[in-house]
Amino acid sequence: KLRSRHRHQPPLPPGPPADPLIGHLRVIPTKDQGSVFHKWAQTYGDVLYVNALGRSMVILDSITAATDLLEKRSSNYSDRPRFPVIELLGYDPNLVLMPYGDRFRKHRKIIHSNFTKRACLPWRDLQKDSAYNLALSLLDNGENYDRLFSWFTTAVITKIAYGFDVKFEDDEYVQMAEHNGFVLNEPETAGGTVVDLLPFLRHFPSWFPGTQAASFAREWRWAIRRLYDLPFEKVKREWDRGTAGPSLLAAELAKLDGKENDEDLEDLKGASAMAFIAGAETTWSALVIFLLAMVRHPDIQRRAQEEIDRVTGPDRLPDFSDQNSLPFVECLVQEVLRWHPVVPLGIPHRCMEEDIYRNMFIPKGSIVIANLHGMALDESVYSDPTSFNPSRFLPKPIGNEEPLFQAAFGFGRRACPGMHLALAGLWIVMVTILATADISKATDKDGNTIEVEPDYTNGLASRPKPFPCRIQSRSEQRRDLLAKAIAASSK
Ligand code: HEM
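C-alpha coordinates for the assembled complex are given below, as produced in the milestone run.
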Protein backbone atom coordinates (compact mmCIF):
# COMPACT_ATOMS: atom_id res chain seq x y z
CA LYS A 1 0.00 0.00 0.00
CA LEU A 2 2.73 2.40 1.05
CA ARG A 3 4.69 1.53 -2.05
CA SER A 4 1.98 2.61 -4.44
CA ARG A 5 1.09 5.84 -2.66
CA HIS A 6 3.94 7.92 -4.03
CA ARG A 7 4.06 7.18 -7.73
CA HIS A 8 7.23 9.09 -8.48
CA GLN A 9 9.12 7.95 -5.46
CA PRO A 10 11.47 5.02 -5.67
CA PRO A 11 10.25 2.01 -3.68
CA LEU A 12 10.98 1.49 0.00
CA PRO A 13 13.77 -0.96 0.80
CA PRO A 14 12.57 -4.59 0.76
CA GLY A 15 11.62 -6.52 3.89
CA PRO A 16 9.52 -9.42 5.11
CA PRO A 17 5.80 -9.44 4.27
CA ALA A 18 3.74 -7.07 6.39
CA ASP A 19 0.22 -7.15 7.77
CA PRO A 20 -1.88 -4.52 5.94
CA LEU A 21 -3.02 -2.96 9.24
CA ILE A 22 -0.27 -3.30 11.77
CA GLY A 23 2.71 -3.63 9.45
CA HIS A 24 5.53 -5.78 10.78
CA LEU A 25 4.48 -5.59 14.39
CA ARG A 26 4.16 -9.36 14.75
CA VAL A 27 7.34 -10.28 12.90
CA ILE A 28 9.72 -7.88 14.65
CA PRO A 29 11.53 -10.14 17.10
CA THR A 30 12.01 -9.33 20.77
CA LYS A 31 14.91 -11.77 21.18
CA ASP A 32 18.08 -12.43 19.19
CA GLN A 33 17.15 -9.54 16.99
CA GLY A 34 20.58 -9.29 15.38
CA SER A 35 20.35 -12.92 14.16
CA VAL A 36 16.80 -12.57 12.88
CA PHE A 37 17.60 -9.35 10.98
CA HIS A 38 20.69 -10.99 9.52
CA LYS A 39 18.59 -13.92 8.33
CA TRP A 40 16.12 -11.54 6.68
CA ALA A 41 19.05 -9.85 4.96
CA GLN A 42 19.97 -13.17 3.29
CA THR A 43 16.59 -13.05 1.56
CA TYR A 44 15.90 -9.35 1.07
CA GLY A 45 19.34 -7.72 0.94
CA ASP A 46 21.50 -5.62 3.24
CA VAL A 47 19.10 -2.67 3.48
CA LEU A 48 15.82 -3.76 5.04
CA TYR A 49 12.66 -1.90 5.78
CA VAL A 50 10.09 -2.69 8.42
CA ASN A 51 7.16 -0.62 9.50
CA ALA A 52 5.05 -1.04 12.57
CA LEU A 53 1.93 1.01 13.09
CA GLY A 54 3.31 3.72 10.84
CA ARG A 55 6.80 3.96 12.31
CA SER A 56 9.59 3.29 9.81
CA MET A 57 12.68 1.34 10.66
CA VAL A 58 15.59 0.75 8.29
CA ILE A 59 18.04 -2.01 9.16
CA LEU A 60 21.52 -1.92 7.67
CA ASP A 61 23.16 -5.33 7.56
CA SER A 62 26.44 -4.50 5.80
CA ILE A 63 29.39 -2.26 6.59
CA THR A 64 29.09 -0.78 3.10
CA ALA A 65 25.49 0.38 3.57
CA ALA A 66 26.20 1.68 7.09
CA THR A 67 29.26 3.59 5.88
CA ASP A 68 27.37 5.04 2.90
CA LEU A 69 24.54 6.35 5.07
CA LEU A 70 25.76 6.85 8.64
CA GLU A 71 29.21 8.15 7.69
CA LYS A 72 29.07 9.64 4.22
CA ARG A 73 25.67 11.23 4.85
CA SER A 74 26.18 11.80 8.55
CA SER A 75 24.63 15.28 8.58
CA ASN A 76 21.28 13.54 7.97
CA TYR A 77 21.79 10.35 9.98
CA SER A 78 23.23 11.46 13.32
CA ASP A 79 20.03 11.99 15.29
CA ARG A 80 18.73 9.42 17.80
CA PRO A 81 15.21 8.14 18.38
CA ARG A 82 13.76 8.61 21.86
CA PHE A 83 14.17 5.85 24.43
CA PRO A 84 11.27 6.40 26.81
CA VAL A 85 12.22 3.73 29.32
CA ILE A 86 15.83 4.88 29.56
CA GLU A 87 14.56 8.43 30.12
CA LEU A 88 12.25 7.17 32.87
CA LEU A 89 15.22 5.48 34.47
CA GLY A 90 16.82 8.89 34.95
CA TYR A 91 19.75 8.75 32.51
CA ASP A 92 19.73 12.48 31.88
CA PRO A 93 21.52 14.36 30.41
CA ASN A 94 22.91 11.60 28.30
CA LEU A 95 25.17 12.01 25.26
CA VAL A 96 24.52 8.49 23.96
CA LEU A 97 20.82 9.15 23.42
CA MET A 98 20.85 12.91 22.93
CA PRO A 99 19.08 14.31 19.84
CA TYR A 100 21.39 15.83 17.24
CA GLY A 101 21.84 19.57 17.82
CA ASP A 102 23.74 22.17 19.87
CA ARG A 103 23.53 20.39 23.19
CA PHE A 104 24.74 17.19 21.54
CA ARG A 105 27.71 19.09 20.09
CA LYS A 106 28.55 20.54 23.50
CA HIS A 107 28.52 17.10 25.19
CA ARG A 108 30.29 15.40 22.33
CA LYS A 109 33.09 17.99 22.48
CA ILE A 110 33.61 17.46 26.21
CA ILE A 111 33.80 13.68 25.85
CA HIS A 112 35.71 13.64 22.56
CA SER A 113 38.42 16.05 23.67
CA ASN A 114 39.09 14.02 26.82
CA PHE A 115 39.35 10.67 25.01
CA THR A 116 41.36 11.25 21.83
CA LYS A 117 44.25 8.84 21.31
CA ARG A 118 46.63 11.47 22.64
CA ALA A 119 44.48 12.42 25.62
CA CYS A 120 44.41 8.73 26.64
CA LEU A 121 48.22 8.30 26.71
CA PRO A 122 48.65 9.67 30.26
CA TRP A 123 46.17 7.05 31.50
CA ARG A 124 48.27 4.11 30.33
CA ASP A 125 50.13 3.74 33.62
CA LEU A 126 46.81 3.63 35.43
CA GLN A 127 45.52 1.01 32.99
CA LYS A 128 48.70 -1.04 33.34
CA ASP A 129 48.80 -0.94 37.15
CA SER A 130 45.11 -1.82 37.29
CA ALA A 131 45.64 -4.68 34.80
CA TYR A 132 48.47 -6.12 36.93
CA ASN A 133 46.30 -5.90 40.05
CA LEU A 134 43.46 -7.57 38.19
CA ALA A 135 45.69 -10.39 36.91
CA LEU A 136 47.13 -11.14 40.35
CA SER A 137 43.66 -11.22 41.90
CA LEU A 138 42.48 -13.56 39.14
CA LEU A 139 45.27 -16.00 40.02
CA ASP A 140 44.02 -16.13 43.62
CA ASN A 141 40.34 -15.79 42.95
CA GLY A 142 39.59 -16.90 39.40
CA GLU A 143 35.96 -17.83 40.07
CA ASN A 144 35.35 -14.18 40.88
CA TYR A 145 36.32 -13.06 37.36
CA ASP A 146 33.11 -11.16 36.66
CA ARG A 147 33.46 -8.83 39.66
CA LEU A 148 37.19 -8.44 39.07
CA PHE A 149 36.64 -7.36 35.43
CA SER A 150 33.96 -4.99 36.62
CA TRP A 151 36.40 -3.61 39.20
CA PHE A 152 39.05 -3.01 36.52
CA THR A 153 36.85 -1.05 34.15
CA THR A 154 35.22 0.87 36.99
CA ALA A 155 38.54 1.71 38.64
CA VAL A 156 39.99 3.08 35.41
CA ILE A 157 36.99 5.14 34.36
CA THR A 158 36.26 6.46 37.88
CA LYS A 159 39.83 7.69 38.22
CA ILE A 160 39.68 9.36 34.81
CA ALA A 161 36.21 10.87 35.15
CA TYR A 162 36.32 11.88 38.84
CA GLY A 163 39.85 11.34 40.14
CA PHE A 164 38.83 8.80 42.81
CA ASP A 165 40.70 5.58 43.60
CA VAL A 166 38.44 2.53 43.58
CA LYS A 167 39.41 -0.31 45.89
CA PHE A 168 38.58 -3.95 45.23
CA GLU A 169 35.17 -5.35 46.11
CA ASP A 170 32.26 -3.62 47.71
CA ASP A 171 33.45 -0.21 46.67
CA GLU A 172 30.45 2.03 46.09
CA TYR A 173 31.56 2.77 42.52
CA VAL A 174 31.82 -0.92 41.65
CA GLN A 175 28.33 -1.31 43.03
CA MET A 176 27.08 1.60 40.93
CA ALA A 177 28.64 0.11 37.80
CA GLU A 178 27.01 -3.23 38.60
CA HIS A 179 23.60 -1.66 39.04
CA ASN A 180 24.03 0.13 35.75
CA GLY A 181 25.20 -3.08 34.07
CA PHE A 182 22.18 -4.94 35.40
CA VAL A 183 19.78 -2.30 34.10
CA LEU A 184 21.36 -2.15 30.63
CA ASN A 185 21.46 -5.91 30.19
CA GLU A 186 17.80 -6.43 31.07
CA PRO A 187 15.99 -7.36 27.87
CA GLU A 188 12.39 -6.22 27.75
CA THR A 189 12.34 -3.93 30.71
CA ALA A 190 15.14 -1.50 30.02
CA GLY A 191 14.03 -0.45 26.56
CA GLY A 192 16.80 -2.51 25.05
CA THR A 193 14.79 -4.18 22.34
CA VAL A 194 13.97 -2.40 19.14
CA VAL A 195 10.32 -2.99 19.81
CA ASP A 196 10.63 -0.73 22.83
CA LEU A 197 12.05 1.92 20.54
CA LEU A 198 8.75 2.11 18.80
CA PRO A 199 6.71 3.61 21.58
CA PHE A 200 3.38 2.90 19.98
CA LEU A 201 4.11 -0.74 19.46
CA ARG A 202 2.66 -3.73 21.14
CA HIS A 203 -0.58 -3.31 22.94
CA PHE A 204 0.73 -0.60 25.21
CA PRO A 205 3.76 1.56 24.91
CA SER A 206 6.43 0.05 27.11
CA TRP A 207 6.60 3.18 29.27
CA PHE A 208 2.86 3.21 29.82
CA PRO A 209 2.25 3.60 33.57
CA GLY A 210 1.72 0.22 35.17
CA THR A 211 3.53 -1.80 32.50
CA GLN A 212 6.45 -3.96 33.49
CA ALA A 213 8.99 -1.60 31.96
CA ALA A 214 7.62 1.43 33.76
CA SER A 215 7.66 -0.38 37.11
CA PHE A 216 11.20 -1.53 36.46
CA ALA A 217 12.22 2.03 35.67
CA ARG A 218 10.62 3.37 38.83
CA GLU A 219 12.26 0.65 40.88
CA TRP A 220 15.76 1.38 39.56
CA ARG A 221 15.70 5.12 39.00
CA TRP A 222 17.32 5.83 42.38
CA ALA A 223 20.42 3.83 41.38
CA ILE A 224 20.95 5.74 38.16
CA ARG A 225 20.35 9.13 39.80
CA ARG A 226 22.81 8.23 42.53
CA LEU A 227 25.39 7.45 39.87
CA TYR A 228 24.90 10.91 38.36
CA ASP A 229 24.67 12.91 41.60
CA LEU A 230 27.00 11.38 44.16
CA PRO A 231 30.43 11.56 42.48
CA PHE A 232 29.61 14.88 40.86
CA GLU A 233 28.70 16.53 44.14
CA LYS A 234 31.78 15.13 45.82
CA VAL A 235 34.15 16.50 43.16
CA LYS A 236 32.30 19.82 43.06
CA ARG A 237 32.71 20.23 46.84
CA GLU A 238 36.41 19.41 46.57
CA TRP A 239 36.71 21.78 43.64
CA ASP A 240 35.10 24.63 45.58
CA ARG A 241 37.54 23.99 48.43
CA GLY A 242 40.49 23.82 46.03
CA THR A 243 41.32 20.20 46.92
CA ALA A 244 40.08 18.32 43.82
CA GLY A 245 42.65 15.99 42.19
CA PRO A 246 43.08 15.79 38.40
CA SER A 247 40.11 14.35 36.50
CA LEU A 248 37.92 14.99 33.48
CA LEU A 249 35.38 16.72 35.68
CA ALA A 250 37.94 18.92 37.45
CA ALA A 251 39.52 19.88 34.11
CA GLU A 252 36.12 20.85 32.70
CA LEU A 253 35.19 22.81 35.86
CA ALA A 254 38.48 24.69 35.42
CA LYS A 255 37.51 25.61 31.85
CA LEU A 256 34.32 27.26 33.13
CA ASP A 257 36.59 29.60 35.05
CA GLY A 258 34.11 30.34 37.83
CA LYS A 259 31.47 31.57 35.38
CA GLU A 260 29.36 28.43 35.50
CA ASN A 261 25.58 28.45 35.49
CA ASP A 262 23.23 25.65 36.46
CA GLU A 263 22.99 24.36 32.91
CA ASP A 264 26.77 24.13 32.54
CA LEU A 265 26.99 22.19 35.79
CA GLU A 266 24.17 19.86 34.74
CA ASP A 267 26.00 19.26 31.45
CA LEU A 268 29.26 18.43 33.21
CA LYS A 269 27.44 16.11 35.58
CA GLY A 270 25.92 14.34 32.57
CA ALA A 271 29.14 14.18 30.58
CA SER A 272 31.18 12.63 33.40
CA ALA A 273 28.38 10.20 34.30
CA MET A 274 28.18 9.20 30.65
CA ALA A 275 31.89 8.43 30.47
CA PHE A 276 31.40 6.28 33.58
CA ILE A 277 28.30 4.50 32.24
CA ALA A 278 29.40 3.92 28.66
CA GLY A 279 33.01 3.22 29.60
CA ALA A 280 32.54 0.70 32.38
CA GLU A 281 29.83 -1.56 30.98
CA THR A 282 31.10 -2.18 27.44
CA THR A 283 34.74 -2.86 28.26
CA TRP A 284 33.70 -5.19 31.08
CA SER A 285 31.53 -7.23 28.69
CA ALA A 286 34.36 -7.49 26.16
CA LEU A 287 36.66 -8.90 28.86
CA VAL A 288 34.12 -11.61 29.72
CA ILE A 289 33.89 -12.46 26.01
CA PHE A 290 37.69 -12.75 25.90
CA LEU A 291 37.62 -15.20 28.81
CA LEU A 292 34.90 -17.25 27.13
CA ALA A 293 36.91 -17.40 23.91
CA MET A 294 40.01 -18.52 25.80
CA VAL A 295 38.11 -21.26 27.67
CA ARG A 296 36.88 -22.61 24.35
CA HIS A 297 40.09 -22.22 22.35
CA PRO A 298 43.18 -23.47 24.21
CA ASP A 299 45.14 -23.65 20.94
CA ILE A 300 44.65 -19.94 20.27
CA GLN A 301 45.50 -19.13 23.86
CA ARG A 302 48.74 -21.08 23.57
CA ARG A 303 49.70 -19.36 20.35
CA ALA A 304 49.24 -15.93 21.95
CA GLN A 305 51.23 -17.01 25.01
CA GLU A 306 54.07 -18.26 22.83
CA GLU A 307 54.18 -14.94 21.01
CA ILE A 308 54.32 -13.02 24.30
CA ASP A 309 56.99 -15.33 25.75
CA ARG A 310 59.16 -14.88 22.66
CA VAL A 311 59.02 -11.09 23.03
CA THR A 312 59.34 -10.62 26.79
CA GLY A 313 61.34 -13.70 27.80
CA PRO A 314 60.69 -15.13 31.27
CA ASP A 315 61.97 -12.18 33.32
CA ARG A 316 59.54 -9.38 32.66
CA LEU A 317 55.88 -8.66 32.03
CA PRO A 318 54.52 -7.25 28.76
CA ASP A 319 53.96 -3.51 28.58
CA PHE A 320 52.47 -1.07 26.06
CA SER A 321 55.92 -0.69 24.47
CA ASP A 322 55.60 -4.33 23.27
CA GLN A 323 52.36 -3.71 21.40
CA ASN A 324 53.88 -3.49 17.92
CA SER A 325 55.85 -6.71 18.48
CA LEU A 326 52.73 -8.75 19.29
CA PRO A 327 50.66 -8.95 16.10
CA PHE A 328 48.77 -12.10 17.09
CA VAL A 329 47.69 -10.61 20.45
CA GLU A 330 46.55 -7.50 18.58
CA CYS A 331 44.42 -9.68 16.29
CA LEU A 332 43.05 -11.55 19.28
CA VAL A 333 41.79 -8.29 20.84
CA GLN A 334 40.20 -7.36 17.51
CA GLU A 335 38.59 -10.79 17.13
CA VAL A 336 36.97 -10.46 20.58
CA LEU A 337 35.29 -7.29 19.31
CA ARG A 338 34.10 -9.03 16.12
CA TRP A 339 33.12 -12.46 17.43
CA HIS A 340 30.41 -11.07 19.67
CA PRO A 341 29.80 -7.31 19.38
CA VAL A 342 28.92 -6.12 22.90
CA VAL A 343 26.35 -3.68 21.51
CA PRO A 344 24.86 -6.05 18.89
CA LEU A 345 22.55 -3.53 17.21
CA GLY A 346 24.76 -0.51 17.90
CA ILE A 347 22.82 2.45 19.20
CA PRO A 348 20.00 3.33 16.77
CA HIS A 349 20.42 6.44 14.63
CA ARG A 350 17.49 8.45 13.23
CA CYS A 351 17.36 10.08 9.84
CA MET A 352 16.21 13.66 9.94
CA GLU A 353 15.13 14.18 6.32
CA GLU A 354 13.83 11.77 3.68
CA ASP A 355 16.53 10.29 1.52
CA ILE A 356 17.12 8.05 -1.49
CA TYR A 357 19.76 5.31 -1.40
CA ARG A 358 20.47 2.86 -4.24
CA ASN A 359 17.14 3.89 -5.66
CA MET A 360 15.29 3.06 -2.42
CA PHE A 361 13.24 5.61 -0.51
CA ILE A 362 14.09 6.21 3.15
CA PRO A 363 11.30 8.11 4.91
CA LYS A 364 12.02 11.11 7.13
CA GLY A 365 12.25 10.14 10.81
CA SER A 366 13.13 6.49 10.15
CA ILE A 367 14.94 4.70 12.92
CA VAL A 368 18.16 3.44 11.35
CA ILE A 369 19.73 0.39 12.92
CA ALA A 370 23.26 -0.76 12.15
CA ASN A 371 23.08 -4.51 12.74
CA LEU A 372 26.64 -4.94 14.04
CA HIS A 373 25.88 -8.57 14.85
CA GLY A 374 24.94 -9.19 11.20
CA MET A 375 27.93 -7.26 9.86
CA ALA A 376 30.29 -9.39 11.93
CA LEU A 377 28.77 -12.47 10.30
CA ASP A 378 28.99 -11.15 6.73
CA GLU A 379 30.43 -14.04 4.74
CA SER A 380 31.51 -11.80 1.91
CA VAL A 381 33.90 -10.12 4.38
CA TYR A 382 34.68 -12.79 7.00
CA SER A 383 35.36 -16.44 6.22
CA ASP A 384 33.69 -18.94 8.56
CA PRO A 385 32.40 -15.96 10.56
CA THR A 386 31.03 -17.79 13.60
CA SER A 387 34.42 -19.25 14.48
CA PHE A 388 36.82 -17.40 16.77
CA ASN A 389 39.89 -16.98 14.61
CA PRO A 390 42.31 -14.09 15.28
CA SER A 391 44.52 -15.09 12.31
CA ARG A 392 41.81 -13.95 9.92
CA PHE A 393 43.25 -10.43 10.27
CA LEU A 394 46.90 -11.40 9.69
CA PRO A 395 48.44 -10.74 6.27
CA LYS A 396 48.43 -13.53 3.69
CA PRO A 397 49.70 -16.26 3.46
CA ILE A 398 49.72 -16.72 7.29
CA GLY A 399 46.26 -15.25 7.66
CA ASN A 400 43.30 -14.18 5.50
CA GLU A 401 43.99 -10.44 5.54
CA GLU A 402 40.37 -9.70 6.45
CA PRO A 403 39.57 -6.13 7.55
CA LEU A 404 39.40 -5.24 11.26
CA PHE A 405 35.88 -4.97 12.59
CA GLN A 406 35.86 -1.26 13.27
CA ALA A 407 32.08 -1.34 13.12
CA ALA A 408 32.20 -2.56 16.75
CA PHE A 409 32.46 1.12 17.64
CA GLY A 410 29.65 2.35 15.39
CA PHE A 411 29.59 4.92 12.62
CA GLY A 412 29.93 8.58 11.69
CA ARG A 413 29.37 11.48 14.05
CA ARG A 414 27.93 9.16 16.69
CA ALA A 415 30.80 6.64 16.58
CA CYS A 416 32.16 5.67 19.98
CA PRO A 417 34.38 8.45 21.35
CA GLY A 418 35.83 6.04 23.95
CA MET A 419 37.40 3.57 21.52
CA HIS A 420 41.03 4.55 22.13
CA LEU A 421 40.66 4.15 25.87
CA ALA A 422 38.77 0.89 25.38
CA LEU A 423 41.31 -0.62 22.99
CA ALA A 424 44.25 0.23 25.27
CA GLY A 425 42.45 -1.19 28.32
CA LEU A 426 41.43 -4.39 26.55
CA TRP A 427 44.94 -4.88 25.19
CA ILE A 428 46.80 -4.48 28.47
CA VAL A 429 44.38 -6.72 30.39
CA MET A 430 44.41 -9.48 27.79
CA VAL A 431 48.17 -9.47 27.32
CA THR A 432 48.79 -9.48 31.08
CA ILE A 433 46.37 -12.33 31.70
CA LEU A 434 47.83 -14.35 28.82
CA ALA A 435 51.37 -13.75 30.10
CA THR A 436 50.61 -14.86 33.64
CA ALA A 437 47.65 -17.24 33.63
CA ASP A 438 46.36 -20.41 31.99
CA ILE A 439 42.64 -20.39 31.35
CA SER A 440 40.87 -23.72 30.99
CA LYS A 441 37.56 -25.50 31.43
CA ALA A 442 36.50 -26.14 35.00
CA THR A 443 35.85 -29.65 36.29
CA ASP A 444 32.95 -30.82 38.42
CA LYS A 445 33.31 -32.63 41.74
CA ASP A 446 33.76 -35.95 39.95
CA GLY A 447 36.59 -34.57 37.86
CA ASN A 448 34.59 -34.30 34.62
CA THR A 449 35.30 -31.36 32.37
CA ILE A 450 32.47 -28.81 32.25
CA GLU A 451 31.83 -27.82 28.62
CA VAL A 452 30.90 -24.19 28.01
CA GLU A 453 28.43 -23.22 25.28
CA PRO A 454 28.16 -19.49 24.52
CA ASP A 455 24.90 -18.04 25.82
CA TYR A 456 24.39 -14.30 25.92
CA THR A 457 22.17 -11.71 27.63
CA ASN A 458 19.69 -9.96 25.41
CA GLY A 459 19.54 -6.22 26.15
CA LEU A 460 20.89 -3.05 24.60
CA ALA A 461 24.24 -4.47 25.68
CA SER A 462 24.94 -8.19 25.44
CA ARG A 463 27.42 -10.35 27.34
CA PRO A 464 27.96 -14.03 28.11
CA LYS A 465 25.84 -15.40 30.94
CA PRO A 466 28.00 -16.65 33.85
CA PHE A 467 30.05 -19.74 33.00
CA PRO A 468 32.54 -21.79 35.00
CA CYS A 469 36.25 -21.79 34.16
CA ARG A 470 39.61 -22.36 35.78
CA ILE A 471 42.32 -19.72 35.99
CA GLN A 472 45.74 -20.91 37.15
CA SER A 473 49.13 -19.29 37.48
CA ARG A 474 51.48 -20.15 34.60
CA SER A 475 54.46 -20.13 36.98
CA GLU A 476 55.56 -18.87 40.40
CA GLN A 477 58.06 -16.62 38.66
CA ARG A 478 55.32 -14.80 36.77
CA ARG A 479 53.21 -14.42 39.87
CA ASP A 480 56.25 -12.85 41.59
CA LEU A 481 56.73 -10.48 38.67
CA LEU A 482 53.14 -9.30 39.10
CA ALA A 483 53.49 -8.92 42.88
CA LYS A 484 56.77 -6.98 42.50
CA ALA A 485 55.39 -4.69 39.79
CA ILE A 486 52.38 -3.89 41.98
CA ALA A 487 54.55 -3.22 45.03
CA ALA A 488 56.82 -0.94 42.96
CA SER A 489 53.94 1.10 41.56
CA SER A 490 52.31 1.63 44.95
CA LYS A 491 55.49 3.08 46.46
C1 HEM B 1 34.75 -2.38 24.16
C2 HEM B 1 34.43 -1.16 24.43
C3 HEM B 1 33.40 -0.33 23.71
C4 HEM B 1 32.56 -0.64 22.65
C5 HEM B 1 32.49 -1.95 21.87
C6 HEM B 1 31.76 0.54 22.38
C7 HEM B 1 30.80 0.60 21.37
C8 HEM B 1 30.02 1.72 21.11
C9 HEM B 1 29.01 1.79 20.07
C10 HEM B 1 28.66 0.67 19.09
C11 HEM B 1 28.45 3.02 20.13
C12 HEM B 1 27.32 3.56 19.22
C13 HEM B 1 27.91 4.20 17.99
C14 HEM B 1 26.88 4.68 16.97
O1 HEM B 1 25.84 5.22 17.35
O2 HEM B 1 27.09 4.51 15.75
C15 HEM B 1 29.10 3.74 21.21
C16 HEM B 1 28.80 5.01 21.59
C17 HEM B 1 29.38 5.65 22.67
N1 HEM B 1 30.43 5.20 23.46
FE1 HEM B 1 31.34 3.42 23.31
N2 HEM B 1 32.10 1.52 23.26
C18 HEM B 1 33.10 1.05 24.09
C19 HEM B 1 33.75 1.73 25.10
C20 HEM B 1 33.50 3.04 25.46
C21 HEM B 1 34.26 3.77 26.46
C22 HEM B 1 35.48 3.26 27.24
C23 HEM B 1 33.67 4.99 26.57
C24 HEM B 1 34.12 6.09 27.51
C25 HEM B 1 34.38 7.26 27.25
C26 HEM B 1 32.55 5.04 25.61
C27 HEM B 1 31.69 6.10 25.39
C28 HEM B 1 30.71 6.15 24.43
C29 HEM B 1 29.79 7.29 24.25
C30 HEM B 1 29.74 8.54 25.10
C31 HEM B 1 28.97 6.97 23.14
C32 HEM B 1 27.85 7.82 22.54
C33 HEM B 1 28.36 8.70 21.43
C34 HEM B 1 27.27 9.53 20.76
O3 HEM B 1 26.09 9.19 20.82
O4 HEM B 1 27.62 10.55 20.15
N3 HEM B 1 32.49 3.83 24.96
N4 HEM B 1 30.06 2.92 21.79
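The longest helix spans residues 262-296. The two ends are 72 Å apart (CA to CA). Further analysis is deferred to the final report.
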